[in-house]
Write a structure and sequence with these properties.
The protein is mostly beta strands and about 250 residues long. It is built from one helix and 22 strands. The longest helix is centred in the middle third of the chain and has 4 residues.
């Protein structure tokens, strides 16, 4: 986080070092007797989170190494399938088949929801760090192998209707966000969708992979001044009364 790295393993005390020169900045001494670290995560801009094997969540000041809060969580910890992160004003803990939201100031679990698993839900970055997939302030989350939801990270509630990928196999990888920050690509089995986050746009659809992509329906030639994206072939369904956050387009 910034110029600070938090290093740990099951045999060592959590140690923060300067990322440029490797100088030790502080060592965290507040773990319980005999307890070991199961996962660590950055809570930008100024905090780290540590989760122990016994389910104790510690929030630590990144500059001083002082503990700001610690709490014993009543949840099972899946070793090797657990990660911590922050999205907006909420902390996130994904462990095993459950995603939790927790308060940054009190480390209290606020909400919980089923999850497909760490590797399928969160992107793995170089060094092994997992991060959640966020677009338009919403957390893109595989509830199971065929259901992609857009969650409000503050409440864990789904915003609108979930995107279903049925009949072609389960999801195996996280969604990906395009550079525009609003277009999301998701795949499950042989189905792939390009989703555009749109809280007011309820349109959605899916499209199976094939050796030859289907021809788009004919449409009028765009007039001068029409944005380039509008000229791309796409399919949209009729209005969805549930108010789904996704607009789906394929090219």
């Amino acid at each position: 986080m910034g110029d600070a790295l938090l290093l740990t393993d099951e045999f060592a005390r959590p140690t923060c070092v300067d990322a440029r020169g490797g100088k030790e900045l502080w060592v965290y001494e507040e773990l319980g007797e005999g307890d070991t670290v199961a996962a660590v995560g950055a809570l930008p801009p100024d905090r780290f989170a540590l989760l122990t094997e016994t389910g104790a969540l510690h929030v630590v000041d990144a500059r001083s190494g002082d503990r700001t809060v610690a709490r014993a969580l009543r949840t099972d910890i899946a070793r090797g399938a657990t990660a911590l992160a922050r999205t907006g004003t909420a902390g996130l803990l994904l462990t095993g088949s459950t995603l939790h939201g927790f308060g940054l100031d009190d480390a209290r679990l606020i909400w919980s929801t089923p999850a497909l698993g760490l590797d399928a839900c969160w992107t793995r970055r170089p060094g092994g760090v997992h991060v959640p997939v966020v677009a338009g302030g919403l957390l893109l989350h595989w509830k199971d192998g065929v259901t992609l939801t857009a969650l409000d990270p503050r409440t864990g509630r789904s915003r609108g209707r979930a995107q279903q990928f049925e009949g072609t196999g389960p999801a195996q990888c996280p969604p990906a966000v395009a550079p525009d920050g609003a277009t999301v690509y998701a795949a499950a089995g042989r189905a792939c969708a390009a989703l555009r986050i749109d809280r007011e746009g309820p349109d959605r659809n899916t499209h199976p992979h094939s050796s030859r992509p289907p021809s788009p329906p004919s449409r009028p030639t765009p007039s001068a001044g029409t944005p380039a994206r509008a000229a791309r072939p796409c399919w949209r369904s009729t209005d969805d009364p549930t108010g789904a956050p996704f607009t789906t387009a394929y090219s």
